[in-house]
Write a structure and sequence with these properties.
The chain has 389 residues and is α+β, with helices and mostly antiparallel strands. The chain folds into three domains: 2-84, SH3 type barrels (Roll); 147-215, no CATH class; 220-387, no CATH class. The protein contains ten helices and twelve strands. The protein has helices at 2-20, 134-144, 167-176, 183-191, 194-205, 220-237, 261-273, 291-296, 325-336, 367-371, and strands at residues 41-46, 51-58, 62-67, 70-75, 79-84, 156-158, 213-215, 274-276, 279-280, 376-377, 382-383, 386-387. The chain has a five-stranded antiparallel beta sheet, with no helix packed on it. A three-stranded antiparallel beta sheet has the order 9-8-10. The radius of gyration is 24 Å and the shape is globular. Mean pLDDT is 75; it is low at 23-39, 88-119 and 355-389.
Length: 389
Amino acid sequence: MKRVDEHAAVRRHARWARRVLPTGLMAFLLLAWVGRSQADLADVHLRNGLVLRGEVSATDEEVVIRNVAGEVRLPRSLVSQIVPVPAASTQPIEQPATSATSPSETEPMESAPEVLEEPAPGTTELPPAPPLSDDDIQRLRRAELRLDGAAERVRVRFLRKGRQRDLALEVLEQLRRRRDYQPQWEQILLHGQPHEKLQLILRTTRDEHAERIVIESDPLVFDTFRRRVLPVVTRGCVRSGCHAGRAARVFRFPLGSPGSDVYAYTTFVLLDQMETRHGPLLNRSNPEDSVLLSYLLPPEATSRAHPPVGRGPSFKAVVRDREERPYLAVLSWIDMLAVPRPDYGLKYVNPYAGRLTAPTSVPSTEPAQAADSGVEPAVRVETMGGTSP
């Protein structure tokens, strides 16, 4: 019976693949390239004839494949063999992958396939943005958590080491000594839900007890960013010659799956810290004036068009006009961000701070593209020839 079930599963995946994949890709499907070391890659050969490429980890029960398009988990019974990819292999990517196990459960995150484009002659390859630390992710979650109104229903753990008392009891004792003590605080800290205790602790003590608080799920602003904004940014910006791959210009997106915490929060920090000659990518005070929104539009639809990209595919607008849902989703999300911008207290070092243009000037055949990079750092530093404007 088990072998019959395995064959049935293979047939189901084969039928799904025939529905969603072009015929030319049925024989060999390559997952999206994310610029990682090729020594980490492997080809996973399925019993239905498909071959999936990505970073592979395997157990006796399942095989996990990760790349920029997401994570695929397959029962080991569907896999015939796993073949490491030699370091010299530089085959381009034809199609980003979607989950082969549950294609109908969620809509896959859209991602532009990244061409293995070489940097322009005479230029320096930009390194991918380093990943954000877990501590910095916690700092962001605390800072953007809504502290007024109903408490956001996030998952939270309050750490307790050695002889430490329950954090809620410690905070209650601390608050009772304050002149502005309110009796309802005791009800929340003694009988409230964890997320309600979290809101009160952060509202009254800020980050004083941060080392004992672990927020395990996204506050609303980051949940919305990951579901509705990150797919739009990934589709429009993560492409060779723009901000991905070896020919990336000005800054480069991090490596990893867009579904991971590290990728999502690192990307948020990059967008939050970048500023153009027209203003910040994310304008919290006036969301409609955010340059990120202008960069989603066709050049003819805005006075602040996205600058010409360098090598690689030409610029492609993400939306046609300001009435499209992706545009409105990004606008609505920017309006959710805390105003004024919090001091997140991040330890993260942005490697692109101080970068006003591409890493080095490109050959004279592309002077306009080199000069019109469009993005400069929010933290302005002294550069060659004087202080940045």
